[in-house]
């Protein structure tokens, strides 16, 4: 037997557990602080390379001086980065404010726009002091997505004219009307530059092999602008013109009525605040999914106040209005940022670039910046958001908001969306349907919708159709019943029973609320406490149920109780097909209930289970096509965004690997052949200990024994096997697939997530972190 297959020496029954060793890479150590500083430095450079072309493009699209975009990037990075409540969010000139700012510049001029930016910043500062940031999150996501989609459509229409060599009009309708004439007579060189920019933007992240790995170092917007600049060399085309840096002129208030000025300030405040707060929440969630992410949630009121200070300073210095943006924030998180230091450093790099590389910036063709902003606008119209709002029956709100923004403006579009949302909410509250049907054993009264006082007359008329002395099932399918409806129903029930009839009040499918479930007494969607229904009967005289009858009893309980609840959702999944976001690869152990520990439902996870949660590496003679096929299908066809390998305590496969080896002349069994895929994990555990590299660790407590240690090491080893699969390696190199390790202790009901950089499994805490707002 080779050295890697030798089994570790058996330990005695009583094992002295040594204290958990402290490693130099523990949080707070100099090594860990140095590592965090390097990650922040790297992330700041990535965001800087993204922010420069984006800021110039947004300034061009608004009609403001081009240096205003750089000023907003500097102020957003340094001021908002230091004062904001979302450390990983990156602020600057934002796409959501482009249409609003362009309208202000055209209507009042640049100096007046700076004054309005200052007033909007002061308003944000006051709102932050009043601690109203959480109230902004009460607005329907359909309104927010519709607003961003309307802004994106307006941006794309306007910048398409610039790409074609023309100039945009002030309104989206005018741009749409003038588009056919512009398409008939395009500027050939500008169109070529725009096409090159769009092609590089769309294809940069999809480069295969080594080129794809290098592409991750350079952001796609910068690569597109560099390519377009190279193509435009030697041609006569409009380029960036940066004026010499000088003290900005003092802002002046526009000469307009007070209501008009108040509406302009309110529009900038609303859009900037909404985009900043929603982006902060999105970046916070993105960072929370990353191992080793900083703890604590975004402080939204502090973020709103920080944005207010940044807008005030930006207006004073002649910069564009500022808001936090999901584009730069998500790039910051994906680049590995761990603190606000990355955001501040990005602002410093932009400042140095504006002062030292102005000549290089003036080589950029304007058509490239317009194409960059156009693609950003198109991407703001997200089909994923459309499917999401359609699934929640809020597409009318989305469409009304989008149309209102395109036709009338941002503030008017949001007001339109709110009005439609209120109308739909009232309609759903008052829309109640009551039907009476005669069945073989009596009558059934079905109430669909919310049962409020407005539906009491309709309910009373329906109940009056039920003959006396009959059995009646009243099926309540809504989620709300007010006091008036309750009294009317109870009064009729008492009268019907007094005349010799029977009334059964139930939920969906008419099941009585207190009825027993037969073989299974567990209710659907309830906690798994006291799950005794599948255990043998305690009475010795009773005949115990067979496992088959228990299984059929569970299926019968599903059809009776759970199927009516999930039928609508499963019907939707049957029509639309599965779209899971994660591949979850775990052990076949019956105690590991994936839907329970991940709080997932139908369509959420693509799950692969096998003995020992093993991932055979590809290309070997003993590789397993079953697991490899599932991985390829999840990654290439389902396009999952993450893969999680989950081990668990008391794993029988790990115990078998640690056990005595079978005689060499014994015929291998299917189980022993399968467990060969776990031998690299066993060898890795032996190697770690023998070479003194430290052990894999659990946060909060030491590793209990060799079986648990091997289960932890096995998760790390199987992640390495996953990366050997070509489809996984390619998607991971593109940045569209992340891998996670997880360990679940069954007896403690505690999940741990792997931080690969530290070799430590960190406990997932159930209690929410305290939030200061």
TrEMBL record:
Its main location: membrane. Residues 39-395 form the SLC26A/SulP transporter domain. GO terms for molecular function: carbonate dehydratase activity; zinc ion binding. SUPFAM superfamilies: beta-carbonic anhydrase, cab, SpoIIaa-like. Catalyzes the reversible hydration of carbon dioxide to form bicarbonate. GO terms for cellular component: membrane. Zn(2+) binds at residues 587, 589, 648, 651. Residues 1-10 have a biased composition (Polar residues). Its cofactor is Zn(2+). The chain crosses the membrane at residues 41-61, 142-164, 184-205, 217-238, 258-283, 342-361, 367-386, 398-426. This is Putative carbonic anhydrase.
């Amino acid at each position: 037997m080779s050295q890697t297959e030798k089994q570790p020496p058996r330990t005695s029954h009583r094992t002295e557990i040594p204290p958990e060793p402290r490693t130099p890479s523990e949080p707070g150590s100099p090594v860990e602080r140095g590592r965090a500083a390097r990650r922040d430095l790297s992330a700041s450079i990535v965001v800087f390379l993204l922010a420069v072309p984006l800021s110039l493009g947004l300034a061009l699209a608004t009609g403001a001086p081009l240096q205003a975009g750089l000023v907003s990037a500097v102020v957003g990075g340094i001021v908002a980065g230091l004062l904001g409540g979302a450390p990983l969010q990156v602020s600057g000139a934002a796409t959501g404010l482009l249409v609003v700012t362009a309208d202000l510049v055209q209507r009042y001029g640049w100096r007046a726009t700076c004054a309005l930016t200052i007033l909007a910043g002061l308003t944000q500062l006051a709102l932050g002091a009043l601690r109203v940031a959480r109230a902004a999150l009460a607005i329907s996501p359909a309104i927010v997505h519709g607003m961003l989609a309307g802004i994106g459509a307006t941006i794309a229409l306007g910048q398409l004219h610039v790409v074609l060599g023309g100039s945009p009009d002030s309104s989206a309708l005018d741009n749409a009307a003038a588009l056919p004439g512009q398409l008939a007579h395009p500027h050939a060189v500008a169109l070529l530059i725009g096409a090159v920019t769009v092609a590089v933007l769309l294809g940069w992240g999809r480069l295969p092999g080594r080129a794809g790995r290098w592409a991750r170092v350079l952001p796609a917007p910068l690569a597109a602008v560099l390519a377009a600049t190279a193509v435009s060399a030697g041609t006569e085309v409009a380029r960036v013109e940066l004026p010499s840096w000088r003290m900005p002129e003092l802002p002046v208030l526009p000469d307009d009525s007070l209501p008009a000025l108040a509406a302009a300030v309110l529009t900038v405040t609303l859009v900037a605040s909404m985009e900043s707060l929603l982006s902060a929440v999105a970046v916070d969630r993105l960072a929370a999914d990353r191992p080793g992410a900083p703890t604590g949630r975004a402080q939204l009121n502090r973020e709103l106040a920080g944005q207010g200070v940044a807008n005030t300073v930006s207006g004073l210095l002649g910069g564009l209005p500022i808001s936090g943006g999901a584009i730069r924030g998500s790039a910051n998180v994906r680049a590995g940022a761990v603190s606000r230091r990355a955001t501040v450093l990005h602002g410093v790099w932009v400042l140095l670039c504006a002062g030292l590389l102005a000549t290089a910036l003036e080589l950029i063709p304007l058509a490239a910046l317009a194409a960059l902003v156009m693609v950003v606008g198109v991407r703001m119209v997200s089909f994923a958001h459309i499917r999401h709002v359609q699934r929640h029956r809020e597409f009318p709100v989305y469409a009304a908001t989008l149309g209102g923004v395109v036709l009338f403006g941002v503030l008017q579009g949001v007001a339109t969306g709110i009005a439609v949302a209120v109308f739909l909410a009232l309609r759903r509250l008052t829309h109640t349907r009551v039907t009476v049907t005669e069945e073989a054993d009596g009558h059934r009264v079905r109430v669909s919708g919310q049962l409020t006082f407005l539906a009491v007359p309709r309910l009373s008329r329906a109940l009056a159709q039920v003959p006396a002395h009959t059995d009646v099932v009243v099926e309540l399918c809504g989620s709300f019943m007010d006091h008036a409806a309750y009294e009317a129903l109870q009064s009729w029930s008492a009268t019907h029973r007094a005349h010799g009839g029977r009334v059964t009040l139930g939920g969906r499918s008419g099941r009585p609320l207190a009825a027993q479930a037969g073989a299974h007494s567990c209710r659907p969607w309830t906690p798994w406490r006291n799950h005794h229904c599948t255990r043998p009967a305690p009475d010795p005289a009773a005949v115990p149920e067979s496992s088959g009858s228990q299984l059929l009893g569970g299926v019968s309980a599903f059809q009776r109780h759970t199927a009516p609840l999930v039928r609508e959702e499963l019907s939707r999944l049957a029509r639309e097909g599965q779209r899971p976001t994660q591949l979850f690869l775990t052990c076949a152990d019956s105690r590991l209930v994936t839907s329970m520990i991940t709080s997932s439902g139908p369509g959420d996870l693509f799950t692969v289970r096998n003995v020992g949660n093993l991932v055979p590496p590809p290309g070997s003679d003993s590789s397993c096509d079953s697991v490899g096929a599932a991985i390829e299908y999840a990654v290439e066809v389902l396009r999952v965004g993450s893969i999680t390998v989950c081990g668990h305590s008391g794993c029988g496969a790990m115990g078998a690997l640690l056990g005595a080896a079978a005689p060499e002349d014994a015929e291998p069994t299917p189980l022993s052949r399968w467990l060969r895929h776990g031998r690299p994990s066993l060898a890795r555990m032996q190697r770690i200990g023998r070479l003194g590299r430290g052990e894999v660790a659990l946060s909060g407590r030491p590793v209990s024994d060799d079986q648990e240690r091997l289960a932890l090491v096995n998760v790390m080893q199987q992640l390495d096997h996953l990366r050997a699969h070509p489809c996984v390696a390619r998607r991971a190199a593109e940045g569209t697939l992340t891998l996670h390790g997880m360990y679940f202790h069954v007896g403690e009901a505690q999940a741990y997530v792997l931080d690969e950089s530290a070799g430590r499994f960190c406990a997932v805490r159930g209690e929410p972190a305290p939030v200061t707002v």
